[in-house]
Amino acid sequence: MGIIIMIIVGGIIGWLASIVMRTDAQQGILLNVVVGIVGALIAGLVVGGNQIASGAFNLSSLLFSFLGAVVLLAIVNLFRRGTVR
C-alpha cells in the first residue's frame, strides 16, 4: 500500500512542480509521477535520508520533495532548451 501512496503523492508533487516550472503542457501524467518520485529521491539524498520513500509524509519531507522535483525540472529544461526558464 505504501508504493501506491508514494506514486499518488509523487504524481501530485510532480504535477505541481511542472505547473511552477511551466512545463505542464509538455509532459503527461506518467512523466509527472516520474518527476515527483525522482525529485523526492533526490531531495532525500541531499537532505539526508529517504524520507518519502520510507513512508514519512510530513510537511518538511513534502516540501523538500517538491523542491527536488522543481530542481529536477530545471535541470531537464537546461539540457532540453539550453537555458533555464
Automatic annotation (TrEMBL):
<feature type="transmembrane region" description="Helical">
    <location>
        <begin position="29"/>
        <end position="47"/>
    </location>
</feature>
<keyword id="KW-0472">Membrane</keyword>
<feature type="transmembrane region" description="Helical">
    <location>
        <begin position="6"/>
        <end position="22"/>
    </location>
</feature>
<comment type="similarity">
    <text>Belongs to the UPF0410 family.</text>
</comment>
<dbReference type="Pfam" id="PF04226">
    <property type="entry name" value="Transgly_assoc"/>
</dbReference>
<keyword id="KW-1003">Cell membrane</keyword>
<keyword id="KW-1133">Transmembrane helix</keyword>
<feature type="transmembrane region" description="Helical">
    <location>
        <begin position="59"/>
        <end position="79"/>
    </location>
</feature>
<protein>
    <submittedName>
        <fullName>Transglycosylase</fullName>
    </submittedName>
</protein>
<dbReference type="GO" id="GO:0005886">
    <property type="term" value="C:plasma membrane"/>
</dbReference>
<keyword id="KW-0812">Transmembrane</keyword>
<dbReference type="InterPro" id="IPR007341">
    <property type="entry name" value="Transgly_assoc"/>
</dbReference>
